[in-house]
Design brief:
29% of the residues are buried. The chain has one domain: Beta Barrel (Porin). Strand 2 and strand 3 form a beta hairpin. With 210 residues, the protein is an all-beta fold. The chain has no helices and 13 strands. Strands 1, 2, 3, 4, 5, 6, 7, 8, 9, 10, 11, 12 and 13 form a 13-stranded antiparallel β-sheet that branches.
């Protein structure tokens, strides 16, 4: 439940801001997740922020994850400069803190679009270099009613878990109106968050476009 707005990187002369709040029910892990996303376009590129909280009835907030990404790009630049920071913690462990530096390319219109970046990923405490490749997409299957969107990440954790990690969260939303949507996502993971198995975790959710 992240990066779902980063593909809107078409620069405009005036500032554009979009934000939403999502609530998901994870049936496999039997917990709720809230996600806040903010995406802002300006004449020098775009900024994306999201925060995830997982809720467990026994302990309250079981985990929190935070990410902020900035793409520096003007109308004359075919490729943008991508800078990103992410970190988080749980009641059992902390996520590996990381900085990402790379190049971003995007293209889109009102019906569909995509964004992709590749970059060097610097983990705190890691003595070896790492990389991350990310793609995001959106397709309005039915205008103003049905949207298929999501992201896919692939990164290495050399000198940490010595694993290559895969994470993807395709989402499908039915728009009740301009403010509220219902739908959900399927979380696909491999070697993610100290779980070295391949997992498929569906959710049902609601989204409030603020």
């Amino acid at each position: 439940m992240k990066k779902l707005l980063t593909f809107f990187t078409v620069l405009v002369a005036v500032s554009v801001t979009s934000q939403n709040l999502q609530l998901h029910k994870d049936f496999e892990r039997n917990h709720l997740t809230t996600t806040f996303e903010l995406f802002k376009i300006d004449k020098y590129g775009n900024t994306f922020i999201f925060i995830d909280f997982d809720y467990n009835s026994a302990v309250g907030i079981g985990s929190a994850y935070y990410e902020i990404a900035r793409v520096l790009k003007t109308e004359k630049m075919p490729v943008g400069l991508h800078i990103e920071y992410n970190s988080g913690l749980t009641n059992a462990f902390s996520y590996n803190e990381a900085l990402i530096f790379g190049a971003n390319y995007s293209k889109g219109n009102k019906k569909c679009g995509f964004s992709a970046y590749a970059g060097y990923k610097a983990f705190t405490g890691a003595g070896k270099g790492n990389f991350q490749v990310t793609g995001t997409w959106y397709i309005h299957l039915v205008e103003n009613k049905l949207t298929f969107s999501g992201f896919a990440d692939l990164w290495t954790e050399n000198d940490l878990s010595e694993k290559t990690v895969f994470l993807s969260e395709p989402q499908l939303w039915y728009h009740l109106n301009k403010t509220f949507s219902v739908g959900g996502e399927v979380e696909l993971t491999n070697n993610f968050a100290y779980d070295f198995n391949f997992n498929v975790r569906p959710t049902l959710g609601v989204k409030w476009n603020i």
